[in-house]
Design goal:
The chain is mainly alpha-helical. About 75% of the residues lie in helices and about 0% in strands. The chain has a domain at about 95-330. The longest helix is centred in the last third of the chain and has 39 residues, at about 225-265. It is globular and about 50 Å long. This is Voltage-dependent anion channel. Keywords: Membrane, Transmembrane, Transmembrane helix.
Length: about 350
C-alpha cells in the first residue's frame, strides 16, 4: 500500500484534532464521554500508530526527504507529528494511567524528534528569508511553537516534579520566541496582501491556536499567576475573534464565487488545523477554569464561554469528519497520500 506513495507531511493534524477533542471537549457531553470516549481513544491510538508508520516509511524515501527540504514552508507540517504524538501520549495517560512507564519512553522519543524538527525549522527559516519567500508564509510555520508547547504539556504530564520548573519555563519562553519570529514573517505577508480575502489560508487559524497551547503550558507549569494566564486568555479571545471573523468573510466570499459545495464544503487536509485550534482553545479554557476554580477572582465568563465553545468544537468536528468520509468514498487516497507531499 505504501510502496509507491507517501503520506502528507501535515497528516498528523487529523490525530491532533480528534485527540484534543477527547482530552477536553468530550467531557461536556456525558453520553459521549461515558459510552464512546474510551473506545474512540483506543481507536485513535491505533490510527496514530498506522499513520506514524506511514510517515516514517515515507521518510525512508529520498524523494520525500528532498521534497521536505526543498519546500521550506510546507515542511513545517512535520510539526503535526510531534504535536499529535504529544496529544496521544497525554490521552493514554488520561484514559489508561497504568501505562505511564510506556508513555514516558514515548515522551523521550518524541523529545528527540522535536529536537530534529526544530533543527529543520531553523534551516527552513533561513531559506525562507534568503529566498525572499516571506510573502508565501502562513500559519503552518507556527507549528514550531505548537510542537514546543506540546512537549511542555507532555513532560509535565509524564514526569511531573522531575521536570524542573526552570527547564519548563525555558521551553515555554522558547515557544514564545518561535511565535514572535514566525508571526513577524506571516505579518509581512499580510502587509502586502491584506486586501485579498481569498488569499487567507486554512492554517492561519494557528495564529490563535499557538497562543492557546502556550496558555495551556502556562497553566500546566503551575509557575504563573492567574492574572498572567487571564491576560494570555484574553489575547487568544481577541485573536480568535479577528481570525474567525476573517474566516467567515472568506467563507461568504467563496460561497458567492464557487457555490456552497466548492466554496466551503470541499475537503482539504489543512482544515483539520481549525478543529485542533478550536479544541485547543477549549482545553486551555477548561484547564484554566478547573485549576483556578477556588480562586477569589470569578471566572464566570470563561465558564459560560466554555459551554458555548464545546458545542462549536463538536459540530465542526462532525462536519469535518463528514467531509473526510465523503473524500474517502470519492477518492483513492483518504489520508491525502500522494506521490508528492
Amino acid at each position: 500500500m505504501f510502496s509507491n506513495k507517501t503520506i502528507d507531511a501535515s497528516a498528523g493534524s487529523i490525530i491532533m484534532a480528534f485527540g484534543i477533542f477527547l482530552l477536553g471537549a468530550v467531557y461536556q457531553f456525558p453520553f459521549l464521554n461515558s459510552h464512546l470516549a474510551l473506545a474512540l481513544s483506543g481507536l485513535l491510538v491505533l490510527v496514530w500508530l498506522f499513520m506514524l508508520f506511514a510517515f516514517f516509511l515515507s521518510l525512508s524515501k529520498r524523494d520525500y526527504r528532498n521534497s521536505l527540504v526543498n519546500l521550506p514552508i510546507k515542511s513545517f507540517g512535520v510539526g503535526t507529528w510531534i504535536a499529535a504524538s504529544s496529544v496521544i501520549d497525554d490521552l493514554i495517560i488520561q484514559r489508561a494511567p497504568a501505562l505511564l512507564s510506556i508513555v514516558q519512553v514515548l515522551a523521550c522519543a518524541n523529545l528527540v524528534l522535536w529536537i530534529a524538527f526544530i533543527a529543520l525549522c531553523i534551516r527552513q527559516w533561513k531559506t525562507i528569508i534568503a529566498n525572499k519567500e516571506t510573502k508565501n508564509t502562513h500559519g503552518v510555520i507556527l507549528l514550531s511553537t505548537v510542537s514546543t508547547q506540546s512537549i511542555v504539556g507532555l513532560l509535565v504530564t509524564t514526569f511531573g516534579p522531575a521536570f524542573h520548573p526552570s527547564l519548563m519555563i525555558a521551553f515555554i519562553m522558547l515557544g514564545i520566541l518561535f511565535y514572535v519570529f514566525s508571526i513577524t514573517l506571516i505579518g509581512s505577508r499580510f502587509a502586502s496582501q491584506w486586501r485579498d480575502i481569498h488569499e487567507w489560508k486554512n492554517t492561519d487559524c494557528i495564529i490563535h491556536g499557538a497562543i492557546s497551547i502556550t496558555g495551556l503550558a502556562l497553566v500546566q507549569s503551575g509557575s504563573f499567576s492567574l492574572v498572567t494566564i487571564l491576560f494570555v486568555w484574553y489575547i487568544v479571545l481577541f485573536l480568535f475573534g479577528i481570525v474567525e471573523t476573517a474566516e467567515i468573510i472568506r467563507g461568504i466570499a467563496r460561497i458567492q464565487k464557487y457555490g456552497w459545495q466548492k466554496g466551503i464544503f470541499t475537503y482539504h487536509i489543512t482544515q483539520w488545523a481549525r478543529n485542533f485550534t478550536f479544541g485547543m482553545f477549549y482545553f486551555f479554557t477548561f484547564n484554566l477554569v478547573h485549576t483556578f476554580s477556588s480562586s477569589s477572582k470569578p471566572l464566570s465568563f470563561q465558564n459560560h464561554f466554555l459551554h458555548f465553545l464545546g458545542w462549536i468544537v463538536l459540530i465542526l468536528l462532525i462536519v469535518e469528519l463528514s467531509l473526510f468520509l465523503i473524500f474517502i468514498v470519492t477518492k483513492t487516497n483518504p489520508l491525502a497520500i500522494a506521490k508528492k507531499i
